[in-house]
Design the sequence.
């Protein structure tokens, strides 16, 4: 997908702003020139444009993102009121300055009846700027959504194009399975598990959700293959208590299990103990892994790349409504995850 250079976009946006303000100033100037003359019209145009910009950019660039979007509504209203009052008072003083020779006299400057129209001007411009900022937010979100859909469509298209070779491999593995079944049933079972893992990667990993039982079957297959690779086989306990049909994003639990076999298996001593639990309770899924620490290998950081990527994905899926923790007590490394299982609490992946 072709990506627009951010600097090019900023320059184009700056040019657009310049054209809009030039148009506003020209319309304002020629709209007043018949009644006020060239000099006054130019002065009014410059001051009005400055005050418009003060209100608009003060709101959309400072007050809105720093106060309104952070839900500090009371402070936002107070600061907006101050901005409007300052802009309205500034315009009132300027008008008195150019129309009255005695504009600085207290009785002229402090007359209340001179100010409401200028404050109304400020409120009108502020409301327009607020609507404009909301419209900007809408188009930003809409564009991001369209880009995400486009990227996903392109990814799925590439995946479909790449499925010819995996399906050829699946057929080959199936043939190997039938050939091995009579002579070595254990080997045939391993071939079957490998085929299921690869099929899960190809067919299920692009789905928004998969049944929890499918994710667990993937973990079982992965653990079974790792058992064969490691001698002596590690002691692994996998406790399960869940609703098989509950939907869950695919490939969400594999990082914990991968880290066990990547960092936690001590092949020198052969003393390896792994405990895994998957418990569904009160609308939440609790996934926990615990393994003896491998003292003969360089220890990975507790929050390595795999866990960092998982945390980012969880933040997108659950918007902070999850818990991911790791603990190293010197003997065991433990990783735990808690996620809500109600579909309404999960965003589209």
Sequence:
């Amino acid at each position: 997908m072709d990506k627009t250079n951010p600097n090019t976009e900023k320059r184009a946006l700056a040019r657009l702003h310049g054209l809009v303000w030039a148009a506003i100033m020209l319309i304002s100037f020629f709209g007043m020139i018949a009644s006020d003359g060239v000099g006054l019209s130019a002065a009014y145009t410059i001051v009005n444009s400055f005050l418009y910009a003060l209100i608009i950019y003060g709101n959309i660039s400072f007050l809105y993102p720093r106060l309104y979007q952070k839900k500090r509504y009371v402070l936002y209203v107070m600061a907006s009121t101050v901005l409007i009052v300052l802009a309205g008072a500034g315009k009132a003083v300027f008008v008195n300055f150019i129309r009255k020779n005695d504009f600085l006299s207290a009785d002229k400057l402090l007359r209340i009846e001179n100010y409401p129209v200028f404050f109304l001007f400020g409120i009108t411009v502020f409301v327009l700027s607020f609507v404009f900022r909301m419209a900007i937010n809408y188009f930003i979100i809409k564009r991001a959504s369209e880009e995400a859909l486009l990227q996903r469509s392109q990814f799925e298209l590439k995946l479909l194009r790449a499925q010819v070779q995996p399906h050829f491999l699946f057929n080959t593995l199936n043939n190997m399975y039938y050939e091995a079944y009579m002579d070595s049933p254990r080997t045939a079972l391993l071939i079957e598990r490998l085929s299921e893992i690869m099929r899960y990667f190809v067919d299920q990993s692009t789905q928004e959700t998969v049944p929890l039982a499918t994710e667990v079957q993937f973990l079982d297959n992965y653990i079974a293959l790792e058992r064969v690779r490691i001698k002596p086989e590690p002691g692994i306990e996998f406790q399960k208590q869940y609703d098989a049909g509950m939907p869950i994003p695919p490939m969400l639990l594999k990082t914990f299990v991968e880290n066990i076999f990547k960092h936690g298996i001590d092949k020198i001593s052969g003393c390896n103990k792994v405990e895994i639990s998957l418990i569904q309770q009160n609308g939440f899924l609790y996934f926990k892994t615990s393994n003896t620490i491998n003292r003969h290998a360089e220890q990975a950081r507790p929050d390595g790349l795999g866990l960092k990527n998982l945390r980012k994905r969880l933040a997108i899926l659950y918007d902070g409504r999850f818990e991911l923790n790791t603990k190293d007590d010197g003997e065991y490394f433990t990783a735990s995850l808690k996620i809500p299982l109600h579909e309404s609490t999960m965003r589209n992946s």
Q: What stands out?
A: Residues 101-110 have pLDDT under 50 and may be disordered. The two ends are 20 Å apart (CA to CA).
